[in-house]
Amino acid sequence: MTISALLTQAAGILAKSSPTPLLDADCLLSAVLHTDRARILAHLDAPVPHRRADRFCALVERRKKGLPVAYLTGHKEFFALDFHVNPSVLIPKPDTETLVEKTLDFLAEVLILKPETLVEKTVSPTPLRVLDLCTGSLCVGIAVVRNAAGPVELTATDISESALRTARENARCLLSAEQRRLLHFVRADLFSGLGGRFDIIVSNPPYVPTKIAHALLADGRGEPLGALDGGEDGLALIRPLVSQAPKHLFPGGRLLIEINHDQAEAVKKCFRLAGFEKIEVFKDLQGTPRVLCGLQGTSKNPGWVFRCASHLHTANAV
User: With helix as H, strand as E and coil as C, how does 214-246 read?
Assistant: First the structure.
């Protein structure tokens, strides 16, 4: 069969189960033929070898049952980077790019405010310390490291060992040797076993209410329930995360977390109870409240300007 015939057949099969049947077919055939969509569309009359056509048809059947294209191909683009994904991790979503963008903004502020007199010009800049809680595929952490204005020492944690394996693979493929030297992986339930303090804690935790999480997975998408299910009201992990975060931040550090569209007021209350200041809500590209950020209170910690000096003693704590 030709490329055109296969795509037409697949789009017909997927028409009732996918909102984007032709795009799904294009992506699946591109993966099977190890090429890009532009090349496929430029050679619609080219024949497809039988084995690859059979492989493509098998993937189409799995897509028909609800499994996302990203799991079928093993790849998903996020922040212009190609990530390995599988059912042990959530598929990176465009909404989460807001979390990366705001983290980069606040890292830039730390770089501006960092006292230059504490770093000798002949010495490499002191890396900024970032903690990525519930890291999953490491898409947030890697996007931050790759786009930060200065060096970042990244600690990535997850309770799932299979998720950490995926994260390590993405780090191997997407980070330089020097960036990986400043990367630490920790299997942990939130902050358990972590030492030292951080300039920024960033997290995309499970925040979907349990009933909704189960309903979402009923379509066969295959994403890990543990990475979605945030308890009865979606805040089961967010509450302890926010309350414990201050003792893991440098004075003047920031906590940024992704939230569900209707959780802003409830999570702001958690931030206030934990003593955070300058609490802000940021919207994603759809205009939906998506990221909540708070500043570790500095009124009781005027020594924040000496953050770099204290960092020299804690940089290897984790």
Answer: HHHHCCCCCCCHHHCECCCCCCCCHHHHHHHHH
Q: Which residue in the block uniquely carries the two structure tokens 């708070």?
A: 294
Token reading at 317: 């704590």
User: Where does 94-314 sit in CATH, by number?
Assistant: 3.40.50.150
Q: What is the model's pLDDT at position 69?
A: 97
CATH of 3-65, one of 3.30.870, 1.10.8, 1.20.120, 2.60.120: 1.10.8
Over residues 40-76, the pLDDT tens digits come to: 999 999 999 999 999 999 999 999 999 999 999 999 9
CB 37 within 8 A of CB 28: no
* Rg (alpha carbons) of the chain, rounded to whole number: 22
Q: 124 with 77: CB under 8 angstroms?
A: no
Residue numbers of the chain with a pLDDT score lower than 50: 116-123, 300-318
Domain ranges, ordered by start, for the chain: 3-65, 94-314
Q: Locate tokens 């299997």: which residue?
A: 187
Single out the residue of 96, 92, 79 nearest to residue 258, CA to CA: 96
